[in-house]
Amino acid sequence: MQKLKDKVAFITGAAGGIGLATAKLFLSEGARVIMADSDADKLEDDAAAMEEIKEHGGSFNIVSTDITSQEQVEKTISYIQKKFARIDIAVLNAGVAGANMPLEEYPVDLFDEVMAVNMRGVWLSMRSVIPLMKKQQAGSIILTSSIQGLSALAGTTAYTTSKHALVGMMKGAALELAEFGVRVNTVHPGYVETPMMDAIHSSVMPDAPENFQKALSASVPMKRYAKPEEIARLMLFLASEDSSYSTGSCFLADGGILAALPTS
Known about the structure:
Elements: E1 8-12, H1 17-28, E2 32-37, H2 40-44, H3 47-55, E3 59-64, H4 70-84, E4 89-92, H5 108-136, E5 139-144, H6 157-177, E6 182-189, H7 195-204, H8 209-219, H9 228-239, E7 250-253
Parallel strand pairs: 1-2, 1-4, 2-3, 4-5, 5-6, 6-7
């Protein structure tokens, strides 16, 4: 049985990595998926990727959306509302890594960009879907945070701050929306095989990015990176009725990285 049959799912950052893997899985589970991304045109121009998406079945639409723009976010949500009259699932996944450098050297404009995408953009997206979900008296909102939303890594203060902020945003929204049947949770991936991680490898160790990846893999108790599809399966759990009593919670998919950290 398809777990998301006829459900309408809105996914940001859907052109690659975790977002694309989630879109494909949701399609295979019967959802009607709206794939939003600032790189939507690039995805549509990739014939191989488009063919792979179609192979998963289901109905999908690709929408170019800059989530830092209130106008564009509201326009996209209005489009979904007119086309489907509902939004059952919102996977607010779009994000940027920023740079790896000491806090006092971090450029202000880059800090603002990280916050605009990772925090304000998620807030704008959630703000736009809530009225419809409240009216429906049902919905699942999933925010993609990170292990750095529960811990920290030197040199990535902007990214870490933005991902911590999502936990507070999630918990506040979960409390506000529980009585309306709308659930809100965060997913916290560890190291995942994505273009974002590839870029991080190259920025930290330009001459031998593969060595940096090997070092990070060795630091994971499971000794490997996650595949995007593994994170997508956690998204599916939170999107479906399998998690009907889960709200206001942080869900880890980190291969055991944070297991060694104290809980307080």
